[in-house]
Structure formats: structure tokens, C-alpha cells
Amino acid sequence: MTSNPKTAKIREYAEAIIIAILIAAFIRTFVVQAFKIPSGSMKPTLEIGDHILVNKFSYGVKLPYLRTTIIPLGRPERGDIAVFIYPEDQTKDFIKRVIAVGGDTVEVRNKKVFINGEAADDPHGVHVEDVVYPGAIQRRDNMGPVKVPDGTIFVMGDNRDQSYDSRFWGFVKLEDVIGKAFIIYFSWDSDNSGVRWNRIGKLLE
């Protein structure tokens, strides 16, 4: 029996679409995922409206939902821009810079970051306010020293005076780290209703 050419064509298109969806799902789950920046906590490195790609291979291959690493390929390092599941609300993803890793002792003194008792090389951190709060009032400008537990990282936003991060809510488990941000692929300035062309293709450091 000869198959209906129209039916065969529909089946061919359906198979192609299903394969494309499966490939896209695989890439999003294990390789690269896109995120949009909703806040200014990482300014000036990341602006509100930046669209970034995150390399999920950087820290190993994880099982979806279980977040168990099945192929370890590396761990977050100081200076990485990491996307992770927010510890206080597992439905949200956050992006911050890795300041310290397991075993490090981190301290903030008058806005200055110290790692293991020494002033940190911290070229990305910026401050937009002159006021310095004592630790007894809040932990933004003075906190610690605290030791980062093994299996966790300590993160902060580059916009140090306007970032809600590990200084306030603690450490991020490695199993909750999604990947490493590496490039801005699109950027939209909603205030001026225009594309930020100069930011497209910018590699993140």
C-alpha cells in the first residue's frame, strides 16, 4: 500500500520538530542556558536588561531536579560570575560573583573584602554610597570573619552597596550552582527603549 504523500510530509515535519525540541531541551539542561538580568546588583558588570548565556558544563554535568553531579568538570573559583538557586527561595535564580570558596575565611572591614586575613584582589567591586555601617547595625560594610564551609561558596554582587547576597543570607551550596555566566548576547535599555549595541557579544570577566 502506498502511503499518502501529505501524511508522510506531516509525519516528516513532526519528527523534525520533536527532534529539534529534544535537542534544545538537552542543550538547555546540560550545556547552555539563557538568563535575563532583572536587577542592578551586578552593576556595572551587568546592567538591567542584559541577556546572558550561562555555561552549565563549567561545574560539571548534573542530573535535572536532583542536582547531583554525575560528571565533575570543575568547581566555582574566586572571581567567577555564577548563577545559582537562591537559598531562601528555591523558585528563584540569582547571579553574583564568587568571593570565597570552601575553606576560605572571609571578612568585610569598612567595605573592604579580606580573604584568609589578606586584602582581596577585588577589581570588580564598586561602591556608590559613602556611608559605612557598623556590623552591629547591618552586615553590608562590616561582617565576619566567617569560614566558608566545604561544599559551599560565598557570593557578593559587584554593586556592593546595593546587593542582597551572602553577607546577609549566608552560603550557596555547590549543588545549587547552575553554571558560569560567560557572555552577553543581547541587551535592552528599557529606560530609553533601545538596544545597547555596545554590550552585545561582551565576554564577562
Walk me through what this model shows.
The chain contains two helices and 14 strands; from the N terminus they run αβββββββββββαβββ. With 205 residues, it is of the alpha+beta class. The chain folds into two domains: 1-30; 33-199, Umud Fragment, subunit A, CATH 2.10.109.10. The strands form three sheets. Strands 1, 2, 5, 6, 11, 12, 13 and 14 form an eight-stranded antiparallel β-sheet that branches. A four-stranded antiparallel β-sheet has the order 9-8-7-10, with no helix packed on it. Strands 3-4 form a two-stranded antiparallel ribbon. The longest helix has 26 residues, at 5-30. The model has no long low-confidence stretch (mean pLDDT 89).
Rg, Å, rounded? 21 Å
Unreliable segments of 5+ consecutive residues: none
Q: Name the average pLDDT.
A: 89
Helical residue percent band:
10-25%
Number of helices: 2
Report the sheet-strand fraction: 25-35%
CATH arch. level architecture of the largest domain: Ribbon
- Strand segment count: 14
What is the CATH H-level superfamily of the largest domain?
A: Umud Fragment, subunit A
The CATH top-level class label of the largest domain = Mainly Beta
Q: Span between N and C termini?
A: 62 Å
If you consult CATH, what is the topology of the largest domain?
A: Umud Fragment, subunit A
Secondary-structure element order, as H and E?
Answer: HEEEEEEEEEEEHEEE
Number of domains: 2
Helix vs. strand class = alpha+beta
- Quaternary assembly: single chain
Shape: globular
Biggest sheet architecture? 8 strands, antiparallel
